[in-house]
Amino acid sequence: MAGDNKQQDFGDEIIGWTVSEYDKHERTKGWYITASIVALLLLFYSFMSANFLFAVIIIVVALVVVLHDGQEPDKVKFSLTDEGVMIGRKFYDYDEIKDFSIVYKPRQEIKNLYFEFKTAVKPRLSIPLGKMNPLSIRENLLKYLPEDLERTDQPLSEALAKFFKL
């Protein structure tokens, strides 16, 4: 029917859950004191070396961290469909995805699903599994994608972000 809003079909949902848009870290007063000291030392260095762009970057990063800390992450719907992966309003067809991996280490509180894309332009997609069963996720994904069995740990960037509470 003409004039109807047609919703694009992304396939039938196989499994879905809600994830936070980003990890929110609990930062202590000590973290803010340490971060402030480091930022001031970097600012001092940037002025001593006449690198004013570096000073601007430090100030912008500090403002972003402070403003971002006062907000709660939005909840986003994540779904595996028979056509691809849907996160929020963004859809990734299985043809775009090179492989997937699941890193499950309960003692370290790591339970994530990773997607690597065929093109280097798109970043790796990291999805927390929350209370989802990693075995059923794996079983369903194996129907559509190969599994990267060599990935046994979370990426270094995620480990550092968790360690530094960024």
Give short descriptive properties of this protein.
three-stranded antiparallel sheet, elongated, 7 strands, single chain, 166 residues, four-stranded antiparallel sheet, 33% helix, alpha+beta, 4 helices, PH-domain like, disordered N terminus
What does this entry look like structurally?
- The protein has 166 residues and is of the alpha+beta class.
- It folds into 2 domains: 13-19 and 74-153, PH-domain like (Roll), CATH 2.30.29; 29-69.
- The chain has helices at residues 29-48, 52-69, 134-141, 156-164, and strands at residues 13-20, 75-81, 84-87, 90-93, 97-105, 110-117, 125-128.
- A 4-stranded antiparallel beta sheet has the order 1-2-3-4, with helices on one face.
- Helix 1 (29-48) runs antiparallel to helix 2 (52-69).
- The longest helix has 20 residues, at 29-48.
- It is elongated, with a radius of gyration of 20 Å.
- Mean pLDDT is 88; it is low at 1-7.
Summarize the structure.
With 166 residues, the protein is of the alpha+beta class. The protein is 33% helix and 27% strand. The strands form two sheets. Strands 1-2-3-4 form a four-stranded antiparallel beta sheet, covered by helices on one side. Strands 5-6-7 form a three-stranded antiparallel beta sheet, covered by helices on one side.
CATH architecture term of the largest domain: Roll
CATH class of the largest domain: Mainly Beta
Radius of gyration of CA atoms, rounded to a whole number: 20 Å
What is the approximate shape?
elongated
Strand element count: 7
Structural class: alpha+beta
Helix proportion: 25-40%
Poorly predicted segments: 1-7
Task: Summarize model confidence as the mean pLDDT.
Answer: 88
**How many angstroms separate the termini?**
49 Å
Beta-strand percent range: 25-35%
Report the CATH topology name of the largest domain.
PH-domain like
The total of helices stands at 4
Largest sheet: 4 strands, antiparallel
What's the order of the H and E elements?
Answer: EHHEEEEEEHH
Strand arrangement within the widest β-sheet reads 1-2-3-4
